[in-house]
């Protein structure tokens, strides 16, 4: 057993309001500079939709993630043979058309325009060329089903649906959408790290954050191809790739990452998780993709288990890290409750960001009187949700409908339980049955409800002690570091 | 694993400082955004090297209660983008003056030693005036000095006041709550001069008239945390993800706690994702659904079986049991006025007997008079204004009979309109005869019985009652609503039963969250009432987790009492000049000229007398009868009328007023509203700040451009009013009424672009101010994180500078104080509420003109222009007595305290508290407000205790020593205290919900009966056929007339402008972050099949047009939008990426308000009667705009 620690995450999609505050928080703090304009380390996507970069889920096109081979797995984009052949030519990179040409406007014309015969206007100009441009794409182009028959209809996950179901999802009886915010998954088994010829990518030992060394990057861009989530980006100004850093400077000072802090839907949770690194390869290599969710869950170690504790101590993990892991909300959502699932586990990267799938409004039918959405069950039923379960399973289960159904039924059971407790107008028997069916007792239902509804910032983000003093001590005198130093700061430069 | 290696090595990882360096800052300062979003979010502003780098939400809100989800974090995608503005190329860094004007000014100024004379010389020369007016909006700004810009403004102030009178100087700034002192700076300057403030809440159509109609209250709602207590939430016309972004989390959190959410929306709006049930209702038909829901509730919870809790609630807290007279007609009867207590022998000698009302007491079988009515509110006898169920005279208990169904004398048939089918039905009601003191008898029934008839609940009575729920012909059954809503009856039945059942079990924990999507329709008040009826019938108003939660605009200014004294300079003189903007713009921007009689699109009962004619004529009547304000007041200066009266020998104020009334009566003097296009009646000088008066707030924007500004317009509408009006003077339509438009702004928005002078305003991170909202119960500061950048200054400081300069110029032009006659309408929360039992027009000889009773009130206010600057900066002596909503507060000792501990200033020989700095004004407000000073709250409750006779001071006992300072707010958000000025209670961390004081403490609503009104017996309402909850159809496009002159080119659609995702009104709409995350433009959302039918694909350019104007933008094609409607989210500027319009001769296309023209609902102009009396932003017609039609076609050739 090789016990590792990782800062891990849960996004509760039932709560996501699709506001993109997270995206802007990140943009402000990290990518508001030349070469990074088009980088959205955090973005939010409407589902069904094609997302950013466009159709990133289409691995036929992008070749991201790991590929299952007979004797294990390999990076799809850099197969053992192809690696050497494609090292100078990487055909599977997203192009500017898959992203967008960053644009701005000639705002100053409004102030400086000389008097004319008509009103001045601020035209769109390219941030690359400075010339007037037509805006044809953006980082959130299909937001809220904009251009639904072009974008939403081409969501790769719809392939899991029957032709009839695919057709119907844009009819008023079935119409629906929800949001999926995305950051780097800081995977347990990251393809980006494996794919980098320069060894510039690494997973931090103390917290599992996947970083891209800005001194070591040689612009190969294999990380861009290899990431099945398209969460590394190439900075055309510095000539280095960059990616979400999970705000380690903030974590190191006890603050949640900017996108977590600013999540006004209160959907995000963060906490330490322990896992067994010895078994990653084995788990990632199992045959059946529908078993990957379970396989990954199996790697997550119970911080109260004496064996885990022993292994952790052996690997130098302090008691305070273990303590942090015991209080981790992620542990509860993922392991204890089975509510949170990885996004596209079939790429075998073992993403360490987990999603609670959303409940959706019930279907309607069209009758003589018009639209009929009357319900038999007071709070609706999962089988009458507006998106077939296959769709959710394509997103979050590697095709496994069972794990998705489990997560949805449990959420619904919690709602019924709380309804009964606060109003008492349901059939007692029905509520008990729903809980049992959902593998949930009252205590668990209560705990789920509390962490979902009442959680404060301290409940949502359990930030582990980062022991920066120990890192500094390895480099020099810790007392000296306290003085904060003096000297010139250097901004990022091309080739730096 | 061979290839993945966790890295610990500190040396290889030394590069990590790369990003650590970026995450560094020097200072963090708390502020917020003043943007009318209702968020009121607390933000940390990060400063690095003296530059604002970014903002993050503050998380340190005090927790209400551990059993309620916390408020942190609050803040949205728009708010977090704000820092972009500070150093962006659209920032106004310096004062700008339109070049054409600047040249003319400099030339004039060179010729005239005096600035006022220079301005006068320009205004006297029509060619010069038109020269710069025509240049408005067409570029050519030049940087000028602050001194020069301010001198022009001050000269225009003096010139306008002197030549035409001060009520031709106006200001528009919206929603003070969001930055209270920034608003107050401008309004204080204006009011010290006698200028006019335009309202906003009604103009934006944020005011729900159904609220004053039902509750006598502008708006009072639950804070968002209270949603959590609601066990069934209906959302309609509101899109919480978009518009309550920081509050929206309470919805899924309530759902997790077992609440059910039903969303009514024609499109799958963003909030629909949270719904258990999404009801895809036809646009504008929510009212029909709720009418049918009430039908079911009345039948199943009041008739088939009785629900004791509901019965008890209706009896005590609604007008349901009150007696209404039935008046005979040719075919039967009509519901008339409520029976007045004074008409009965038993109560014949009652004071204000015309304003006290009766119920039938079950015990005695006799009519009895409960307290709590308007008559009790304004009577001599204290302690009777309460909701106790007892006879106000004898003190004996009353058990009101809700329905006569079990015991009635006769069964008259009453007439009820079915406007949707142009028909009339007759339905029987159980009635009793009541003997009056004059010996005659009247037929009466109860409000409840009228409701049963109106809703068509069959109870075995005669007349045209529906046979069952499945009767689709007769109102208002579940089957009846299907053809309007497009929703199957089964959905209504299920909903109504679950609603009432949940309310019954939870004691009223059902709520409606409602917003602009409903409130912006022409008949919004009827749609709202339809929902409100369901709330009241199920006892859900005034409960935590219940109520009508209307959120449209950040109207709640918590410390209202001291703030309004400072903002409207009441500390120096009263009354201020406060104008309802809808009437004002309708009249002055000449939009009335483009329509004929309102009955073209508004159905009314056939025999109506008031309800006919042209809206402009009813507007004139409303001013004359004291129902609504109007400035300019007269076709003469308000200084001049006093001077003439004095000249004619008037010594006292009363004699001056008598003189003026005589002149009005003899037509020697006229109301300006009668002749709005005469040059002496034009508004002349306009200050715009904190808002976008010429674009997002300009319903009928293109008419503004034409008639106000005198520049190019894209409207092609023809004038139609001639011949259909009676009173208004018809002249050739003037173009370019305004001499000067001054805009204070931090960004070059459309209003700035079209103004003459743009003054650089400090941003929300560069000034000290106060902020509050109804979505939470905290009060927040805006703070100066960095000093105002470049030459910008806070609004407070800019207006202070204009005030000081105006005083300087006044030394020559107003060397002496001057008397100003101020005209005010009959006001809510004053005894004028009981002035007009019937509509009688003195001009028609129906009554005597009595100021403050049958016509507006008048008061002489002495202006001293030499002291405007000084007074601006000091807190005047009248500050010792303040008040709000009828609550009087004596704060003299605290006022004195300000003189002891705060900065002071010598004014007119007296030492006064100084408020020269906005921060000091903020501290004064916090010290004098019951919401932040517990002692003052205590005193307010003492006042109310005397008035009501019920114990109240205990509500403030526990917080009597609580105080807050501006510094305290900067340290941590402070929660407001229980306050006599508001209706909700926050004791011990309780979440605020409106009207809980009424329910728990029996304090009355400020209505006619003191109860919640299901029945509105104002003669005007009876005339318009809206005395009972009613369905009136959405005006038909042909009748509404948006497309009379437009080319029949393209697809006709209903044009909706709900609030959007990427901006708050127009702010942030050009913000680079938001434009990037959207589509670089505000698109035109349309259905995919509709788009296909005109050959439009996603992201194509389209031209959207009607008679009013044209918009060119790109299409967002989506199955999310139903056929027949289209959306441009409110409200893009016309400054960003707007091409030219081929349909309009290749001129620059407009913004979303280019497609609107305002039509006022004249029934909302009535006044002088109970809750139907004027109050600023409280009462009057609203700026509706949802019923608009447009045509859309593909824009083939795009030119900029």
What does the model show?
The complex is a heterodimer of chains A (496) and B (1200). Chain A has 496 residues and is α+β, with helices and mostly antiparallel strands. Chain A has helices spanning 21-29, 59-62, 82-85, 108-112, 163-168, 191-195, 222-226, 248-251, 258-261, 280-284, 292-299, 306-314, 319-326, 329-336, 389-396, 401-422, 428-437, 442-454, 457-460, 468-475, 478-482, and strands at 3-12, 43-47, 66-69, 72-75, 103-105, 124-126, 178-182, 201-204, 210-212, 232-235, 240-243, 268-276, 300-301, 341-342, 353-356, 365-367, 370-372. Chain A has a 5-stranded mixed β-sheet, sandwiched between helices. A two-stranded antiparallel sheet of chain A has the order 2-7. In chain A, β3 (66-69) and β4 (72-75) form a beta hairpin. Chain A is globular and about 70 Å long. The mean pLDDT of chain A is 94. With 1200 residues, chain B is an alpha/beta fold. Chain B has 37 helices and 42 strands. Chain B has an 8-stranded mixed β-sheet with strand order 6-5-25-24-23-7-8-22. In chain B, a hairpin with a 2-residue loop joins β3 (43-48) and β4. The N and C termini of chain B lie far apart (59 Å). The mean pLDDT of chain B is 97. At the A-B interface, α1, β5, α4, β8 and α8 of A face β1, α1, β4, α10 and β11 of B. β8 of chain A pairs parallel with β1 of chain B.
